[in-house]
Amino acid sequence: MKRLFRLAAGASLAAALAAPASAQDGGASWAITNATVVVGDGGEPIPNGTVVVRAGKVVAAGSGVAVPAGIPVIDAKGGWVTPGLVVAVTDIGLFDVEGVSESNDSSAKGSPFNAALDISPAINADAQHIQVSRAGGVTRAAVAPSGSTSVFAGQGAIIDLGADPRPIVRARAFQYVELGEDGARLAGGSRVSAQALFRNALREARDLSLRTPLRGSKAPSAVGQGDDIPADPRLGEARVARDEDVLLTRFDAAALGPVVNGTQPLYIHVERAADIRSVLALKREFPRLRMVLVGCAEGWLAAADISAAGVPVIAKPLTDLPAAFEQLASTQSNVGRMAAAGVKVALGDFNDQPRYAPQYAGNLVALTRMPGASGLTWGKAFAAISSVPAEIIGMGDRFGSLSPGHAGDVVIWDGDPLELTSAPVAVYIDGIAQPLDNHQTRLRERYRNPVEGALPKAYDW
User: Fold this and answer.
1) Which is nearest to 83 in space by CA: 420, 393, 389, 441?
2) CA distance readout (Å), 141 to 168, 431, 450
3) Which of 178, 189, 317, 339 is the most exposed place for a label (fewest CB within 10 A)?
4) What pLDDT digit, counting tens, does each position of 235-294 carry?
């Protein structure tokens, strides 16, 4: 009964807030008062707080915040208000049905290219996985490709999950690499081969970027201009002579130029502690690499090395039993131990279910109450699915928290967002109310109350 009451109260609150919102300078303006406010910066929830969004940007959030005159004000009656969830390393938007190859663009098994692959043109803003994730409170995500024929999977994109046809926030945002057991398989069956191929590729890219362009033309740009969709650094590239004994295509080598120059982050999937240390050692040869480690099931064993290198981690928090030999030291205390050692850790690598992020974060809070286990405080656990992943993907100054000037990505929940029984009742991206319906909710409504006779329409376009 309590759950039903919270849902009804939350639904009425969301409807009241969405209805009077006025467009202003391309965004909505409104305020929520008497809310349990979560800024998302690692601090604890703030009771009796206020959130003000104007022209699609957060003006202020916290206690003692004055509401500007002339904008709609909603009394949250103690309800929870948080920034939108940010999930790093997922594949939403890249497929409709994962097992149907015709609808799956997450990998390119027959392509002659690898590092040059750019997934941004394939992102489908209408994909059901995006709609379901949005209904779960996810407002931004870093979408990564999957490796299929090379350790280099290609270039990922940062997206927003708004209900519009323009999901790309930043194209070619990072390069994704598979090492460890997956990299060994893709490189011919050995980590030795994977490391050799990886280093060779970086050297070829470095050599190409250092060569003098012919006939006075400009060298390939290390990074594009603009935040929304940067210019492709390979466009207009001068044709320069290359050594004959190269393994990469010119297109792939040019795509890796920003990686070796340090202008494009390099996401590296590794799990075993020994592999983590091998990857960190790459910075001695390529000091400009901006590495982000993904996975790190045994990261707690190498936490001191990761912290000393200043490399952030995107970890899957519930890997507590080994699914492979490289995960033999898996433990749910992994994230807590890495954080305690000074590693910047975000929760991610959720593939097509980023909406489970609050559940994972809540489990880390529960671990703090278990003898001998290591978890995170409530505030730090929520930050691990909001501001910390935003910082790691290079967007910490734009979204991920309710800090002044950040995007008005706001979620209203019907209870504590880290409790399994809680759910969003309203989601805003850039201050604009978003639809929460999707194929799953429509099916639920269709079969909620079975009756004799014809069923309601399955589709209504």
Assistant:
1) 389
2) 10, 17, 37
3) 189
4) 444 455 566 667 889 999 999 999 999 999 999 999 999 999 999 999 999 999 999 999
DSSP string, 353-418: -GGGHHHHHHHHHHHTTSTT-----HHHHHHTTTHHHHHHTT-TTTSSS--TTSB--EEEESS-TT
Question: Can you tell me the distance from the alpha carbon of 282 to that of 30, in angstroms, rounded to the nearest whole number?
Answer: 49
Amino acid identity, residue 115? A
For the segment 115-166, what is each residue's pLDDT rounded down to a tens digit?
Answer: 999 999 999 999 999 999 999 999 999 999 988 889 999 999 999 999 999 9
Handedness of CA 45, 47, 53, 56 (dihedral sign): positive
- Contact partners, residue 59, CB within 8 Å, separation at least 6: 52, 53, 68, 404
The count of domains in the chain is 2
- The answer to whether 385 and 357 are in contact (CB under 8 A) is yes
Structural domain includes residue 448: no
Quickly list H helices, 19-124.
Answer: none
State whether 193 and 265 are in the same domain: yes
Q: Give the range of the structural domain holding residue 11, as residue numbers without chain letter.
A: 2-83+411-436
**What is the CATH classification number for the domain harbouring 14?**
2.30.40.10
Residue 388 sits in the same domain as residue 415:
no
Is 404 contained in some domain? no
Whether 31 and 126 share a structural domain: no
The predicted-structure confidence for 45-63, as pLDDT tens digits, reads as follows: 999 999 999 999 999 999 9
**Pair 76, 89 in one domain:** no
Report whether 194 contacts 184 (CB < 8 A).
yes
Each residue of 317-331: b (16+ CB within 10 Å) or e?
A: bbbeeeeeebbeebb
Q: Are residues 153 and 49 part of one domain? A: no
Q: Return d(Cα 420, Cα 106) in angstroms, integer.
A: 30
- Of 315, 411, 420, the closest CA to residue 363 belongs to 420
Residue with tokens 């240390």: 277
Same domain, 181 and 213: yes
Instruction: Determine contact, residues 153/144, Cβ cutoff 8 Å.
Output: yes
**The pTM is what?**
0.88
User: Is 406 part of a structural domain of the chain?
Assistant: no
